[in-house]
Predict the 3D structure of the following.
Amino acid sequence: MSKESKERPTIGIDGQPLPILPPDRDVRVWAKLVRVMFYTPGFMALLMLKTGEPSGFGITVELLMLSSAAAVVAGLFVGSQSVGGGGDYSSKTGIWSGSLVMELLCAIPFLCAVPPLFHQLAHSELLHAREPGAIDTTLGISEMLPAVAVLPFMLYQLAGFGTLCYVVSKAANWAVNLAVLGLIIASYAFNRMNNFGAEKSCVAVLVAIMAVVTFYGVLKLKRMQQDYDTRCPAKKEKKDKQEIANE
């Protein structure tokens, strides 16, 4: 297939620019990612409950369970992808919608939960029995290393690898990512100060923003696909070989 045949039309039949849709995704890759995002946070949540020290968990377990449960919903979107016979506007955006759910309701809650998860497991007295006379050493600033994972995620979004940049403006994309970074840092700081009420407030705002953006994004993707299909130039019918030979 030539390069030209793979390029999407950019101008509609009415002479106006067509919506810029996300690139085609590999459904197999996203299906595998659904399994990863379902099992990994769920296993970590069970590991935290196994330690038997819920007083310092804050809202970490809830974030991990949200990430795991949202992966199931993302799998429903990915599984609905269909561009063949019977495909409609919704099925054509199945992978994009599923990726949006995983980016905002799976990855972000997981990234928010990892720093306090590491802190709690590193200091668990049940997992690490203290020897008599042992010196209690602190990990210091190295405890912040798991939180650095949010930076490549922001790069993923702001550099145009994600799906969010196709449904919101560049300014809104920056605003959402900066809000995510600020709320994750604030929630972890409150967790370390044992101010779990403030931590839950930050996490509640974070999850609410992600839910609203996801809801808006999925509907926006469907509207964009509908607009694109309605105004996309019709493909030229191939001439019969005999007609070409007669010319």
Observations:
- Residues 31 and 69 are 15 Å apart (CA to CA).
